[in-house]
Write a structure and sequence with these properties.
Elements (H helix, E strand, L loop, with lengths): L3 E5 L4 H13 L3 E8 L2 E9 L15 E2 L5 H13 L26 H5 L20 H10 L16 H14 L3 H13 L4 E2 L44 H4 L2 H5 L7 E3 L1 H12 L3 E2 L2 E2 L3 H4 L7 E5 L4 E5 L4 E3 L2 E5 L5 E5 L4 E7 L12 H11 L3
Antiparallel strand pairs: 1-3, 2-3, 2-14, 4-6, 5-6, 7-8, 9-10, 11-12, 12-13, 13-14
């Protein structure tokens, strides 16, 4: 059995066992963490940081978590809302006047956060490098007409979520979302999570490993629809080689280019599960956390092709909320039990060809420690 490092409360030994089993089976390197009442009760890691299995996954190893980053973006918006600087029920154009173009004057902030704004795609881009041009992308989104009447339907805003929320944050604070997160969230908490990665951390990164039988040309794609086909003209394809590049690390793509490990992901998100504080640091009032689990939309998601419940920034699953990333990372928070569980890995799985229940296996094991 793979040697697992770190610690866990005896109640959560099943989390250690679950991580070891994953590393013995599909994973190369990974970390898992559980926070209860804003404090760590499991902080575990093991395996290797590289595909050749020559570099150990260490306590401070970090990896790109792809769309798990959206949880951090949403938290930034909720922090501003709790401070009274952002009204979730206000039109986006109150903060970003140019956004009112093309019939979007009634798009509300909560529409953006709940993937119901009607702007899920970035068509017309021909190269990943175009995603690095913040003003160009946000300008195009401001000029674009919504694909449906905002608020009436949902469609996962895979990349646009970060630009939309990020530009709202920038208009209010004068800081890009990565800087706001670093100064107002990660810094106070002491969380080793970064939206956009400074070069000083490059040596700690475990590059993403494409799914078995795939190469670094493996690209993120919209899920198959109910009829077995994919949506077309949704924007440039992002490959594993892109997500592993230095240019990607330095860019501002806040929906997807966050870096951390399970400890840092769980620490940050435990703020919401624990009524606004973690580790003795308060970021929000108890009431300010509630939009994270208050349902805004329920129904079929036009992009994901599956029924979804969307809150103000998160997917809702029963009494819990959170979201995961391309390849397998995941964070889930349960405000009823004040628990947050996170899983971060480097071995990706192609869900078109293989079920990926790794993160949920960690979550299930954590729930076992509550009873």
């Amino acid at each position: 059995m793979t040697d697992i490092k770190g610690f866990c409360d005896p109640r959560f030994v099943a989390v250690r066992d679950a991580l070891a089993a994953l590393l013995d089976k599909d994973d190369i390197g990974a970390s898992a963490a559980v926070f209860l009442d804003g404090e760590p009760v499991a902080d575990l890691w093991g395996g290797y940081a590289d595909a050749d299995r020559s570099v150990a996954w260490e306590r401070d190893t970090i990896a790109g978590v792809n769309s798990t980053t959206k949880n951090m973006v949403a938290l930034c918006a909720l922090v501003l809302a709790d401070r009274g600087e952002l009204d979730l029920s206000a039109p986006v154009a109150v903060y970003w006047p140019e956004f009112a173009a093309a019939g979007k004057e009634n798009v509300l902030v909560r529409h953006v956060l709940s993937h119901t704004a009607g702007l899920p795609d970035l068509p017309g881009l021909t190269a990943v490098e175009e995603l690095y041009a913040w003003e160009s992308v946000t300008g195009a989104l401001a000029a674009r007409a919504p694909a449906w009447e905002p608020g009436t339907a949902a469609g996962y805003h895979a990349l646009t979520f970060g630009y939309l929320v990020g530009e709202i944050v920038r208009r209010i604070t004068g800081r890009d979302l990565g800087a706001f997160f670093a100064e107002e969230v990660a810094g106070p908490l002491g969380a080793d999570f970064h939206i956009g990665l400074p070069a000083v951390h490059d040596h700690r990164v475990a590059p993403l490993v494409p799914p078995p039988s795939r190469t670094e040309e493996y690209a993120a794609a919209a899920p198959l629809g109910p009829d077995g086909t994919r949506r077309e003209d949704t924007g440039v394809a992002i490959r594993v080689k892109d997500a592993n590049s230095l240019a990607w690390r330095r860019a501002r793509i806040p929906a997807v280019n966050g870096y951390g490990n399970a400890r840092s992901v769980a620490l940050v998100q435990s703020v919401l599960a624990n009524r606004g504080s973690a580790g003795g640091v308060r970021l929000l009032s108890p009431e300010g956390c509630e939009p994270a689990w208050q349902e805004v939309f329920r129904g079929d998601d036009r992009v994901l092709g599956t029924p979804m419940s969307w809150t103000n920034g998160f997917g809702r699953f029963g009494n819990a909320f959170g979201w995961g990333g391309w390849g397998g990372s995941l964070v889930v928070s349960d405000p009823g039990s004040r628990m947050t569980v996170a899983y971060v890995m480097n071995q990706m799985i192609d869900r078109d060809g293989q079920d990926d229940d790794r993160g949920m296996e960690i979550v299930t094991a954590a729930y076992g420690g509550l009873y």
